[in-house]
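User: Batch of two.

Assistant: Item 1 of 2:
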Amino acid sequence: MKQLYALLLLFALNGFSQTIALQSFATGFNSPVEIVNAGDDRLFVVQQTGVIKILNANQVTNPSAFLNISSLISTGGERGLLGLAFHPNYATNGYFYVNYTNTSGSTVVARYSVNASNPNLANTVGTILLTIPQPYANHNGGTLRFGPDGYLYIGMGDGGSGGDPGNRAQNKNELLGKMLRLDVDNGTPYAIPAANPYAAADGADEIWAIGMRNPWKFSFDTVDGNLWIADVGQENVEEINKVPVGDGGYNFGWRCYEGNSAYDTSGCAAQNTMTFPFATYSSAGGSGNCSVTGGYVYRGTAYPNFVGKYFFADYCSDKIGMVSSTGSISYSSVLPGGGFTTFGVNASNELFVASQNNGVVYKVVDTSLGVNDVEKSPFSVYPNPAHGTFAVHSGTGAFPLQITVFDISGKKLLSRTIESDNENIDVSGLSSGLYLVNAQDNSGMPSVSRLVIE
């Protein structure tokens, strides 16, 4: 019997392929461009219009804004409130950072703080850390992230217009077309990390890497610390870069190269000094693609087949892609909403995505987990995913059933006997994730099903 159970367990974990789908989580947002968590069960949804809203775990959005700086920003096209990052010590210092284009169109990075008496409200006066003039209205970048080294990383586009005519991305004295890194815990208003590549050399001290076109979205893998940067292409190639944080000094190639292909190599450094993409896909005419929206490496627990894969979307194709550990890409079918502008993760590292087209925040799910693992099994679990309780349906009406719940390592967590289909089994004490449910009738024959608890 133990051998049979082990075989069923192996089948339950490996006998299926992931299927990317979306579940509507919350509606009513206006041009969502960022989803961030602050280490608790809330999601903070950044709207390009200058408003940050709080989305609670019960899928209810607070009626009042967490922060409204609409009077400070210019909007339209690629301008607006674009980025949000909470300080690693936010729980104690209350600091968070935003990236927006001001009324002059310049990029501003500013620090704000939470209201001391109301965690759902921010103080309305911030401190500007950095202002960067923008020559055009597009290619503003916008994402802010704290790295595993505790420094604040800022993605800056090349300033806009076609083909980077000012060759800013390759100019080490310009902050446009770069990844910047700041020490916001020291200095006034910040200090330069000593390991920044130009901190003690010719070049702008804030620069961590050069050669970016428009790194609209980037993120850090919470397991290995690698930085994933999705850089929007010019005409033909969308690129995804993966690098260790380290000391930086990378040259990601633009405008010399678009992805792996030469674009304008006049006056460029040697090719072997460039860091080429980990993965690329076509956005050439007829492909249906136009602009990569970078996401995250999935590190949640609900969908084991997603673990370790990097998720991204394309703004025009309305598909979500996954990059494997070898750099190969697989895609979902066309998904609802479309116009995907941002991904986000909650404190449990479950994945969300937002549509600019309809203002909906979706949860990214693996629908293959919603079916019984053993296709011909007479038993099935429902609802799946479960919230607090679940029940077991017997297609043959064979009761009583001995029900045992295991985690995916095979550890038994609970066991009970049920007499009918409508008996709820309490799993409220179990954390969110994937479990295995073993149902045995009087003959002792086991049937294993997957159960997702949310």
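Item 2 of 2:
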Amino acid sequence: MPATSRRGLLFGTAAVSAGALLTACTSNEPKTEKQATDNAPVADDKPGKPVTIGFAGPQADHGWLNAINQNAKSRAERYSDVTLEITEGSNDTAAQIGQVQTLINKKVDVLVILPADGKALTQVGLQAMRAGIPVVNLDRIFASPQAYRCWIGGDNYGMGLNAGNYIGEQLRDKPNAKVIELAGLDNLELTKQRTQGFDDALKNYPNIKKVARQAADFTVESGQAKMAQLLQAQSQFDALWNHDDDQGVGALRAIAQAGRKDFLMVGGAGAKSAMDAIKADDSVLKATVLYPPTMAASAIDLARALGQGKGVSGMAELEIPASLTLYSAVVTKDNVDQYLPTGFN
């Protein structure tokens, strides 16, 4: 959870997915077909002043990042008054800085930036703001609040906290329960925040002990390899918290190959494959904790409102908030149908 989100406005899932900021469906089906979220309220859907939004994100080399791009595109297409200038995503900070500078030179009305590296992109965010172009900073936060008008993103600490609390409630009556953790990239601050949230939740359950942790790389291959190592090292445990549903695909392969069914698994992010497995209830995967890529759709809503000088429908303030932290809901078999439309491939 970014430090600035402590002063942010915390939205529950209902407020984000069906309230002032509409979540968008990640489906690639034609717009003529009714999507599952189309009946949710929209922040002032009436056509207004034309707005050109520049969108710059990292390379879509991961299911969640690809869903970010798709959410931004499909959301912009809903508005006849929005033109989206989208860059080719890059994980090279110098390349992404150049792409944002090109958008600044084009004099777009608003910028939405998901930086490959928030600290490295801070200066170009400042450049845009000083040029009179408001910036919506998406998820990975800039080092200075002067570099953006609004930040919107997920709650990494809350993601770990909710995963830990869910596991804790499942194991609260089991003496000497053991859990393990399959984390993401350890050099990322978000990974540390997810682990911290998880560890803090487990403090509420003195009967549970975390006995092992491995860091993977957010890929199917790394998830399978690291999970195989964990399974070999731990002959018995009761629950697994996996930070990422992409690497969870590999983790589930390793679990199936080992023939293990003696524990429950909680995933992270909200991939469609994970939700499908939860609904089928035929594997160890019993829940996933959301890190919704629909935040990109909400970022387009916010950018449009900024470009038109409006606030957010459903809120009393004349201006959009400075910060919005999305809620990390726990998806289980009981509520999976509600969240399936937001699942990403």
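DSSP finds eleven helices and 13 strands in the chain.
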